[in-house]
């Protein structure tokens, strides 16, 4: 029996639309923005890596706070409400670097702005993923909620990919674009605060846990660690997300063509997201995720050899490549709730906050590593900073190779690690039943024998 209402599901999706406007604005354009305002690519590399030193502290502390602090109004919703103004304010600040100030001030502004934004994003990201575990204890319903969230996230991604290159110059540049998108994102994120209901309550003896117990929860949760090691290996090499604008400008000759590519790739990605609840009723989501990742490697290598000279062929192949990547993009966020249930079952410790904090940390580590790697690779192929700068001979071919082959390598090396992940939908259902008191542990141990 379903526990959540339609308005809750819709609001949950809207929140992800707003949140991912912020996320993909930075993920896709932060490197381009920094180099456009004249910050050297090596300085960008240092900034993004230093911010993650703070991240390692920030995410662990906040995950612990979510699990330890008790609000009368809920476990996750109070934190979501707190994040509503912080994330738009820090986004606007980050994109307000003056172009006529000394380079040291630009670098300082960029570093401070990124740290503030990163902290704000943690506060908005950890609770929204954790919310599914308190909205419902039904595995299928959690999958449905996360699918809805990813569909709306893909719509947001498409909007950012299309709107920024089409209107950025005409409305005055980076700051007006960030301002408009931040206002829109805030409007989308607000409804969940008034519609969601946290129904699943922890048992009294599970609420107050120590930081030592949290460490034990993570240390003994091997599948949480396996999945996110694979995630970081794959995502850390995904420099393509940071290089879209460069490829549009230099390989295709017009940054507005990025919008065309985004539209072509969005349709199969959104269709894949819609199909996931249906597909995963027949096929375990892990197998869909694993083989979609493997197919993605092959498609990237093929795209490199096809090249960028023939736009029609490029458009067709971009459409096809988006199908497996759509499945991967949606499914990757469906494994953390399963790992949280496994950790609860294995250790007896209920700590969803720390599980989702690790997810947030991994996502931001991936963004930092891939951004730093993209900046470093631009430096290696002698990129000249400044909007409209002329690049050296051979730059376009080198950029194309980095854009496609580096992400393919990351996906390839993640597959052997991912193969060690043994949680499946049926085993998670059994563990959830034990965790919620609906099945005795002895019965579950018999059913799970040899599967973990």
Describe this structure in words.
- By secondary structure, the chain is an all-alpha fold.
- The protein has a single domain (11-196, 203-421), classed as Growth Hormone, Chain: A.
- It is 77% helix and 0% strand.
- It is built from 18 helices and no strands.
- It has helices at 6-36, 41-68, 77-94, 103-135, 139-167, 174-189, 192-195, 211-219, 222-236, 240-251, 257-282, 285-306, 311-331, 336-347, 352-380, 395-418, 425-435, 441-448.
- α9 (222-236) runs parallel beside α15 and α10 runs antiparallel to α16 (395-418).
- The model has no long low-confidence stretch (mean pLDDT 86).
Please give a handful of descriptors for the protein shown:
mainly alpha, Growth Hormone, Chain: A
- Round the mean pLDDT to the nearest integer and report it: 86
What percentage of the residues does DSSP assign to strands (E)?
under 5%
Helix tally equals: 18
Order of helices and strands: HHHHHHHHHHHHHHHHHH
* Major sheet summary line: none
Coarse structural class: mainly alpha
At the first level of CATH, what is the class? Mainly Alpha
Using only CA atoms, what is the Rg? 22 Å
Shape: globular
Q: Superfamily at the CATH H level?
A: MFS general substrate transporter like domains
Helix content percent band: over 70%
């Amino acid at each position: 029996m379903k526990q959540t209402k339609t308005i809750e599901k819709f609001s949950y999706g809207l929140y992800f639309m707003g949140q991912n406007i912020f996320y993909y604005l930075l993920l896709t354009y932060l490197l381009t923005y920094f180099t456009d305002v004249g910050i050297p690519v090596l300085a960008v590399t240092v900034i993004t890596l230093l911010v993650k030193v703070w991240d390692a502290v920030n995410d662990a502390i906040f995950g612990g706070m979510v699990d330890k602090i008790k609000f009368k109004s809920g476990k996750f919703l109070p934190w979501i409400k707190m994040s509503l103004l912080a994330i738009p304010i820090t986004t606007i600040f980050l994109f307000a670097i003056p172009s006529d100030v000394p380079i040291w001030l630009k670098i300082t502004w960029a570093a401070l702005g990124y740290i503030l934004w990163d902290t704000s994003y943690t506060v908005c990201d950890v609770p929204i993923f954790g919310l599914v575990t308190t909205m419902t204890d039904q595995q299928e319903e959690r999958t449905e909620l996360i699918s809805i969230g990813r569909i709306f996230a893909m719509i947001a991604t498409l909007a950012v990919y299309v709107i920024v290159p089409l209107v950025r110059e005409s409305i005055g540049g980076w700051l007006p674009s960030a301002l408009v998108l931040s206002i829109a994102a805030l409007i989308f994120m607000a409804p969940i605060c008034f519609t969601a209901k946290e129904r699943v309550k922890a048992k009294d003896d599970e609420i107050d846990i120590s930081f030592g117990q949290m460490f034990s929860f993570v240390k003994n949760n091997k599948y949480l660690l396996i999945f996110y090691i694979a995630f970081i290996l794959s995502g850390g090499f995904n420099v393509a997300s940071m290089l879209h604008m460069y490829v549009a400008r230099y390989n295709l000759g017009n940054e507005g063509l990025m919008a065309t590519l985004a539209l072509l790739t969005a349709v199969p990605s959104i269709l894949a997201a819609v199909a996931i609840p249906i597909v995963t009723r027949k096929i375990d989501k892990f197998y869909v995720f694993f083989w979609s990742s493997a197919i993605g490697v092959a498609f990237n290598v093929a795209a490199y050899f096809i090249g960028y000279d023939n736009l029609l062929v490029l458009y067709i192949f971009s459409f096809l490549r988006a199908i497996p990547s759509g499945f991967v993009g949606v499914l990757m966020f469906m494994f953390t709730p399963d790992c949280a249930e496994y950790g609860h079952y294995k250790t007896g410790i209920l700590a969803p906050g720390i599980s989702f904090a690790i997810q947030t940390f991994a996502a931001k580590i991936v963004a930092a590593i891939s951004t730093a790697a993209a900046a470093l690779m631009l430096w290696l192929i002698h990129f000249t900073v400044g909007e409209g700068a002329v690049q050296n001979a051979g730059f376009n071919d080198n950029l194309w190779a980095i854009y496609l082959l580096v992400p393919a390598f990351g996906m390839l090396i993640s597959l052997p690690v991912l193969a060690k992940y043994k949680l499946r939908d049926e085993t998670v259902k059994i563990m959830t039943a034990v965790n919620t008191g609906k099945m005795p542990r002895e019965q579950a141990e018999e059913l799970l024998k040899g599967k973990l």
